[in-house]
Each structure stands twice: as C-alpha cells, then as structure tokens.
Amino acid sequence: MSWDLYPALDIRAGRVVRLRQGDYAQETRYDTDPLAQAMHYAEAGARWMHLVDLDAARAGGYTLIPLLRTIKAETGLAVQTGGGVRRETDLLRLIEAGADRVVVGSLAVQEPEQVAGWIARYGAGRITVALDTRRDASGRWQLPVHGWTQSEAGGRTLDTLAAAYAGIGLKHLLCTDIARDGMLAGPNLALYAHLRALAPTLAVQASGGVRDLADLRAVQACGCAGAVLGKALLDGRFDLTDALREAAVC
Predict the structure, then answer these.
(1) H or E element, residue 146
(2) How far is CA 64 from the centre of its chain?
(3) At what angle do helices 213-221 and 240-249 cross, to 10 degrees?
(4) What separation in angstroms does the CA of 93 have from each of 59, 86, 90, 96, 115?
(5) Active site (catalytic) residues
(6) Of the candidates 121, 125, 72, 126, the residue with the CA atom closest to the CA atom of residue 102
(7) What pLDDT does residue 36 have?
(8) Please, which residues bridge with residue 15 across strands?
(9) Parallel, antiparallel or unpaired: strands 4-12 and 15-20
(10) How many structural domains are present in the chain?
(11) Angstrom distance (rounded) from CA 80 to CA 65
C-alpha cells in the first residue's frame, strides 16, 4: 500500500485557518496566501494536498472553485478537496474544476446509500469518505456532521459505516479524531489500529494530532495509507521536505 502525506489548507472567509477540535469559535489565522502556501508545499516535494472549505462544511455550497482551479493550474499538485458536498452536482463541479478526489463527509454519514451510488458511478478512486469521529461517554465512536457542529441523528457509528463502505468497495477513508484536531497531542493510534482491523481493505488517512516525525512513523506502522498534516506544518514544528523524506523510507 502506498504511503502519502497530505499537507492541508483549511480555508474560512478566504483565509488559511486552523480550528481547535473543530470549534469555529477557536480559530487561529495564518498570515499566508492560500495559493502561495500551496506552491510552497509543491516546491517542497508534495504530491498531494488536502483543501477544505470550512464555511461550506457547516453551511453547504463549496466556494473554493477558483482557488482549486488555480492550484491545479499553477502547482501540479494532486488535490483532495471537500466541504459542503451535499448533491451530485456538487461532486461533478469539483471534478470538472480539477479535483483528483472529492471528500464527502456529512452526506456520507447521513445518506450512505446515495454516496455508495456515486462510488459505483464515478469510481472508488475519485471519492474520499470522511468519517470524522468523537468518542461518547459509552465508548462508541460517534459521527458529528455539518462541520462537526451537529450530532448525527440516525444512530450510525464509525464502526458500522466504515465496515459498510468497505463492503461496497470504498478505497479512501479519511478519519479525524476530533478531540485531537488542532491540538498537537499526537494521533490516536489505537483508533487507526482499530479501523485497520475492522476494515483492512480501506486506505485509511490519519488526521488530527500529528506533531512530529515520530508521529508519522507511528501512523505508518499501524497500517495507515497516509496522514493529513495541518497545524504542525503551519506552525513550523517540522519541515515538509523532512516529512516527505521520512515517508519515503517508511
């Protein structure tokens, strides 16, 4: 299984930001232009990037088409992107604009049959299902939706949906431990080991908590296919070139 790193840009109101545990009231803004940052990642040797429309994740209606087109035209990066993908027309708009993979989150939780149809029609290589999760008091991994601001009302859990998507041929699964997101507390290795045991055919992307190169080695060792890198890169805790070199030898 290939091992990829996904430097991430989360965009809110046109600016690069990071949230703490998905809380829109706890935002850190970065004084960097999104396109310039994407070009920096490409120059460092990245193959992929992860682009998120935070406004659309909460309200629907992906707004980053112009930025997506420009990144594709000027950087050569493969782009995995999402936020607010609620209808098939949203999916098709992103594919037409150059998205290599479209990330589907809330809809993948609330309407899994519809997303299964998309996977069948457009191919497992074009869609990344995001099952972002928070553990409840009983120990179950719940799946908040709409930018992690609402609870999923259908009773679906990470375990039930990950197994179901693996069963219909999903390839790429992005899983963020919300409690770790933006916290630089280390990735939840037990969560990813659990997912790999539950659905070994899925290429799992770890997200949330990566703080150093040792974390990358640990994520790879537990069987993940890649890792999303956000706050640690923006804060300069390690260099992307070093991270990519580390990934190449893992």
Answers:
(1) none
(2) 16
(3) 30
(4) 17, 12, 5, 5, 16
(5) 10, 132
(6) 126
(7) 97
(8) 12
(9) antiparallel
(10) 1
(11) 13
**Interval 36-60 mean pLDDT:** 96
State both tokens at 112. Answer: 């899994």
Q: What is the mean pLDDT of residues 59-80?
A: 97
pLDDT value, residue 235: 94
Place of tokens 């719940």: 142
Counts for the chain of helices (H) and strands (E), in that order: 11, 12
Q: What is the spatial distance between Cα 20 and Cα 93, in angstroms, rounded to a whole number?
A: 30
Query: 190: exposed, middle or buried (C-beta count within 10 Å: 0-12, 13-18, 19+)?
Result: exposed
Q: What CATH number does residue 152 fall under?
A: 3.20.20.70
Note the helical H segments in 136-181: 158-167
Largest pairwise CA distance in the chain: 48
Would you state the pLDDT for residue 237? 95
Residue by residue, DSSP assigns 52-80 as EEHHHHHH-----HHHHHHHHHHH--EEE
Using only C-alpha atoms, the chain has a radius of gyration, in whole angstroms, of: 16
The CA–CA distances, whole Å, from 144 to 124, 129, 151, 181, 236 equal 23, 14, 5, 14, 30
Domain, as residue range, for 65 = 4-249
The predicted model gives 101-113 an average pLDDT of 95
Q: Which residues, at least 6 apart from 208, have a Cβ–Cβ distance to it below 8 Å?
A: 176, 177, 178, 179, 180, 181, 182, 183, 187, 188, 228
Read off φ and ψ for residue 188, nearest 5 degrees: -85, 85
What secondary structure letter does DSSP report for 87? S
